[in-house]
Sequence to fold (736 residues):
Amino acid sequence: MLSKELFKKPKNQLEHAETVLPDPRKDGAEEPCLACPACKKVLFENDLERELFVCEHCGHHFRVGPRRRIGWIVDPGTFTEHDAGLLSENLIGFPGYEEKLAAAHKKSGEADGVLTGTAKIGGFPCAVFAMDPDFMMGSMGTVVGEKITRLFEYATREGLPVIGFTVSGGARMQEGILSLMQMAKTSGAVRRHSDAGLLYVAVLTDPTTGGVTASFAMEADVTLAEPRALIGFAGPRVIEQTTRQTLPEGFQRAEFLLEKGFVDKIVDRRKQRMYLHTLLFLHGREETL
Amino acid sequence: MFSKILIANRGEIAVRIIRACKEMGISTVAVYSEADRDALHVSLADESCCIGPAAVRDSYLNIPAVLTAAKVYGAQAIHPGYGLLSENARFAELTAQQGMTFIGAPAKVISAMGDKDAARRTMKAAGVPVIEGSGLIEDEETLLKEAERIGLPLMIKARAGGGGRGIRIVRERGELLPAWRAAFAEAQAAFGDGACYLEKYLTSVKHVEMQLLADSEGNVVCLGERDCSMQRRNQKLLEESPSPAMDGALRRRMTACCVRAARAAGYLGAGTIEFLLDQATGEFYFMEMNTRLQVEHPVTEMVTGVDLVKWQIRIAAGLPLDFSQKDVALRDHAIECRINAENPMEGFCPSCGRIRLLHVPGGPQVRFDTALYQDYAIPPFYDSMIGKLIVSAKTREEAIRKMQAALCELVIEGVEHTGEFQTELISQPEFRAGTYTTGFLTQWIGS
Fold:
């Protein structure tokens, strides 16, 4: 152990003290960085973006908007948006809903809580949807329900598989019973799509809860999930209070659901494109005798 | 001139850099991991900052932590040493973004030279001879075609590799395909980039590297060569300058070549170009360029009288070199023996322990670079090199005698080390003759 005072400081003047140093304040902006909420390590935004918003240290999957998601999955330039003009209205006169909608538009930059359209993945045409965590927590109101329904109906008519990404706090309270009705409506459209023998793959992302879980999110042929995603119907507190039981570790996380059979496979975001492509390939081939 | 520099490294090189700063009147900030609290470089620096736990990736390679320490302590520049972040283009870029000077090559040069395949092409275009080889191997067909053209034995090299890593040797046709697949997978896993190229495998060659200094005014000076052919598993154990295989004419040709190469690469700072030299034909071939200070830099310092670390700092501060190529002369002969905390009798297994007794040799032209001190406990997490013993004398014969004496006077009790092994090594006739090639050491150890 060496004392920090052990070595004396040499009496040397700074050599070349008059030289002009390279200008320290450059015009380049400082690179933004943030801390991973899971492992607390510092991440540079450019690095994070390169990793599809997955923490390179602990694998924590950050929440991302629908356009980014679709952009990572589909073949470049193949996405055609549907029903972009559908906007929510305050149908039951719920106080403060207009303000909430305006704030949501501003925060997410999207028209409502889901982005729908058609695209190609690895050359395979399909219908896609991705919900928006920044638009009122992806809550399902009449517009979300309508867009999803129209997408499934379109896919049924055109014979297309559907690939969808869910993220939601559940049914949108501000539209009351009309939101709940979307559960039945979307489920009906999904059922007809299924009866037509078409493939539907859902990727459940963190968090997928409430009326969305209890309807179209869990009605897929293949149900995938992102690692550690919270997937459930009722929230943990309500469950604990109702059942008066302590919930096990990891309850309602994707890994727990995988174990119990509610999720077919957990796929890391960085591998999703390849995996979805494979599924489309396997289910897309014509059977020949 | 920078008034404060942060040293983003540890061990003997951190001590070396701090020493240069002390001479220049520059304040120093050391960074250390939790395992390095008692390290010499921490006490030697004016200020110090703990940047993480023992594991290298959480401390010395923890870029946000290093940059934060530099900002908080008000460093104007960061010296990365060798290894660790010294050839990390991203770190160089981020340092500059934070308004500090990275003491080393510019980020884009680091990237360019870090891509071994691109580096080869840059050198070739600049008229530097390169080893017969291929471009990137895209598929099996190209692999077989190129292998046929180049001929066996050959090496499959990862373009993202370097420093001896990501290399596979293929001696028989049957090994080719599996070796390529394995090399690709390994490189993909280790460097995130599996792309490989082929190079003819030259045996019985000397590894000769040239030291360069390039300033911001376009002056490039070559400070002679170092013969680093004593290698075990692509790790150097002993280096000397001048190379016994060099004569004046060859040195002039290689110097001209290097200066051309440095200009072609847009180089700035201290750098080293590694060549393979075929003693029989006198032909030399570019192997790779290291855009950093090398471990064995003291050898060049002893024969040229140029303080490479000080010049790195001056160049980074924008000062021009105050000497030109004609002022450079290799005087005397220098040898460096690396002292590793390893047991040569147990397959060079690393050894740890507390230093009970340390006696360092001295006398004219005897230098020992180390971070050891008596009662120091060597942490088990880092490199096994614990010191470098460098001597110089008027002739090579005298330098060998001096090294022999100095090695015997060097006492490090508490760990197993390779000092005695080195005394055996320098007594070998192949070493004394100076003709030893890169295959010699492994062969001698095996026998």
Notes: The domain at 63-284 of chain A is CATH 3.90.226.10 (2-enoyl-CoA Hydratase; Chain A, domain 1). The mean pLDDT of chain A is 92. The beta strands of chain A are 33-35, 42-44, 80-82, 114-121, 124-131, 162-168, 200-208, 222-225, 265-266. Residues 1 and 7 of chain A are 13 Å apart (CA to CA).
